[in-house]
Amino acid sequence: MNNTLIVYYSLFQNTKSLALEIEKQTGGTIRELIPDKTYSFDYNTASKEIRNEISRGFCPKLISGNESIDDYQTLFIGTPNWFKTLAPPVMSFLKQHDFTGKTVIPFCTHGGGGFCQIENDIAKECSKSIILPGIAVNGAVTPEEVTKWLAAIGYELK
């Protein structure tokens, strides 16, 4: 069994596209995080909901994707960049698992802001794990971009 897990949350499918490319190239297991309450598909409404949740430190209940990570050694964790940090469903996932001794590799999609605090926020929640450099993608991801990044961090492709 491949001991790599790709966990992600995606509202507008950008992060999902990146997660699927990582899955394709690593042969890992993919897992989508689904909160119990979905966000509005209207950008302005969703922005207000999300900003409010982040400012309160709210972590939504996950109805899918929160299963055990015990069988995995390497975890790619993906999120959109929402107001310079993680999407609340990803924070829920991080707070509910023990990452001690695991390798954690962040990835994000953004509209021009890069990682901002995402890598630091993941490192804080996964303080007893090995954190490798992540990838932040603005716009559509290319397979070559992911291949180059995986090689740069020393990940052995399937």
UniProtKB/TrEMBL annotation:
* Gene3D superfamilies in the cross-refs: 3.40.50.360
Q: Which SUPFAM superfamilies match?
A: Flavoproteins
Listed GO molecular functions? FMN binding; oxidoreductase activity, acting on NAD(P)H
Instruction: List, alphabetically, the InterPro entries matched.
Output: Flavodoxin/NO_synth, Flavoprotein-like_sf
Coiled-coil positions = none
Pfam families per record = Flavodoxin_4
- In this protein, which residues make up the domain named Flavodoxin-like? 4-151
Protein name, entry field: Flavodoxin
